[in-house]
Amino acid sequence: MKTQLTKSKIALSILIVLMLSTVSLTFAQKEIKYEKIYYLDTKAESNDVTISIDNAVSTDAETKFKLKITNKTNDYIIYKPSESKFIINGKEINPQEKPLVIEPNESGSRVINTKGNYNTVKDYSFVASGLYKVSTGTKSIAAADFKLPPSRNDFKAADFDCVLSKVSKETDETAVKFKCTYLGKNVGIIMPSKVTVKMPDGNEYANAKSKAAPLLFINKGEEDSFTLLWQRMPGGKDNDMQKVEMIIKWNDAFHESTPDKLKPVSLELKFDENTSNDKGK
Question: Using CA atoms, how far apart are residues 182 and 188, in angstroms rounded to an integer?
């Protein structure tokens, strides 16, 4: 009787071992190694922005995707990727892409990546922090009139230092280029569209760049340039731009705004098995 029981136990043990071996073999056969892992497109939304991630892929060198931000507000949105973070296997990594400025009710995008061996990572998170809303409706900064021909080549408007870098003053067209440096701690704004020129007839004339988008200075010490343009004036020789004095009026061109930091937006990247099987092996 004991012999029979012993034989039964041995047979059962052998059966269990065979079953476990079969399960292990089946699991091993199903485990696929990918050169590239693809992820499903994803999207998240807040009151101010819609953020989407497209074409996400991981390799043995990096993981990357296209991040698109749609600005739903009438203000500017600034996105600083370095304040965002990947969360991969519990580890946080900050991307290092350049900041992005999105105009009101418009969209902008950046390719975001981080280096490393990620072709075994099937799911991870991305937290889009570093989003700021910037209003251009702040009180303007006064700037002294600028004469053409110039009596000096530079001027200052609060935390803006500006230099005349190029001027062409002809009868048919006057073009003036300025380079400005922002030395403040917030966000500097220059609106070339606000600039006019006062002519000897006493009238002020908008510049031909009146539809130019504002320039935003995100960091202290940042530089940018803009051009003002006027074409042949009415009034004949009395308003001949080549011969008469022109006075640039800055009006409401210079502003400074304190950015309003928005709440982070979290997105989950999920394994796209079909695409990975088709293109990633």
Answer: 6
Q: Is 74 helix (H, G, I), strand (E, B) or coil?
A: coil
Distance CA 219, CA 223 (A): 9
DSSP 239-269: G-TTTS-EEEE-TT-EEEE--EEPPPEEEEE
Best CA proximity match to 224, nearest among 261, 175, 187 = 187
Question: Quick count: other Cβ atoms within 10 Å of Cβ 3?
Answer: 7
Q: Which residues of 102-123 are buried (b: 16+ CB within 10 A; e: fewer)?
A: beeeeeeebebbbebebbebbe
Compute the half-sphere exposure of residue 145: CA atoms within 13 Å on the CB side of its CA. Answer: 13
Tokens of 18: 């065979």
pLDDT mean values, one per 10 residues, the chain (281 residues) = 54 54 49 92 97 98 98 97 97 96 96 96 97 95 96 96 97 97 97 96 92 92 97 93 96 97 98 95 90
- Can you give the pTM of this predicted structure? 0.82
Residue 99's nearest CA partner among 72, 132, 75 is 132
What does residue 203 show for φ and ψ, rounded to 5 degrees?
A: -90, 155
